Amino acid sequence: MQENQVDSETTMMTIDQLRQANVALAQFVSHLLDQQQQIEDGLIKINRLESVAVMAGGIAHDFNNILTTILGNVSLAKMLAPKDENLIKRLSNAEKATLRAQDLTRQLLNMTKDNKPAKQLTSIRDVVQEAVDFSLRGSTVRYELSLPQGLWPVEIDAGQISQVIHNIIINAEHAMPNGGVIHIDAANRSIDDLRPVHLHTLSPGSYVHIAIQDGGSGIEAAHLQHIFTTYFTTKAHGNGLGLATAYAIMKKHQGAIYAESEVGIGTTFHLYLPASPAQHVGGQAGTERSTASGTGRILIMEDDDTLHDVVSSTLNMLGYEVMLTRDGHETLSTYQLAREAGRPFDAVILDLTIPGGMGGRKTMTELLAIDPQVKAIVASGYTTDPVLVNFEHYGFCGVLFKPYRAQQLHQVLCDVIEMPVRVATAGGPAAL
Length: 432
Known about the structure:
Rossmann fold; EC 2.7.13.3; Sig_transdc_resp-reg_receiver; HATPase_C_sf
């Protein structure tokens, strides 16, 4: 009797354990299926974003070509215009509007895959001012800036850092639906080995610190540690990409970004960008050359007819002698014939992308084989291309980011023409 009772109890325990095991197994399988669905949903999002990124890059490239034509014609009109203050003012406004349109293409290009920063020594004051003004145009939210004159220059991709600031400002604006004030401050900072934990990724050195403070609803502590995670959002219609993109860009710049927040008080985002105290910003941010002192023979490879006209007219006005070609093969032939005739070109401007033809990168390789001392400038509206990011590695002496103004074109040409003659090195492009 006792044995039967024990067997019965054992059987009941075994059945109960099996039931529990089945429930646990069912829960585990359900969890796996949920994870699989999340992975599949994530892959769909990634594929969709990559498709959009490819399209965005193409649109941005074409749009920058159009903007270059518009900006070039406006710059040319300013040079040709009589000394009429009202007319010059209108043309300057058109020029500024075109440059603001460039911000749209920068945002599109920031969506492209593997978009390495095309860094240039830059005044952060101008970048912050323009980005904040652009982001809050038409908004009920106001802003107050504190940007000292003595801020150190930073080596950045201005378009990408503008996107970082834009994303943070939009985030702050959404946190203040009834309006308010965003405070933006900047200051020089020296970071040493005893840096705070949230700056542990920074190397010791000089930085510019930017603080963006809102008076919004704040972020809960449980959410604060996740705000830079891709797809994380607490907004009903958010996509969780804005702050994740900002984090990725700051990381590519060897900088840092973090946030402090208090619910009901507001949030402050801190940005740290590597600075170069000993250097000064030249080119477009500094004193530009006179627009009537250009000399030299310039060969330009560009397949766009409208750009042909405006660039050649502008350079002729500036005093240059210009020859135009449409693709790499014509460029190589023209360059070689000019050398043989004893009338070599002082500089060459190569468009990076020639649809259906030899583009700037391949043409540059062939030009170096013909003349290791060739002075060439690469131009493109696709500003995140690796060739533009590291143009010297490919043998170029300078770079032009479309759209560009007449003064910028003239500045780059003068700088390149005045460079010392390069000496060919074995196994690679000519080096200075």
